[in-house]
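Support request, priority: normal
Reporter: lab tech (M.K.)
Component: structure prediction queue

Hi team, I submitted a job for Hymenoptaecin from Bombus maxillosus italicus yesterday, and the status page still shows it as pending. I've pasted the exact input below so you can check whether something in the sequence is tripping the parser. The sequence length should be 60 residues. Please let me know if I need to resubmit or if it's stuck on your end.
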Amino acid sequence: GSPRFRRHADPQGSVVIQGQKPLSGPDRRPSLDVDYHQRVYDRNGVNADAYGGLNIRPGQ
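Reply from support: The job had stalled in the queue. We restarted it manually and it finished. Here are the results:
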């Protein structure tokens, strides 16, 4: 399989980082996926979330 690592921040804002480096197969380039979620506003039953994503695949 591919080694993976995850990091979870505090519940208020979550950042998930996944790194993959295939050791076999046609595509041996590493990839990095970053997902970001932040609760930016929460008051009187109204809330707003900010989402962000980043995908890094060197060599493509």
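The chain has a mean pLDDT of 69. Residues 31 and 49 are 26 Å apart (CA to CA). Let us know if anything else looks off. Ticket resolved.
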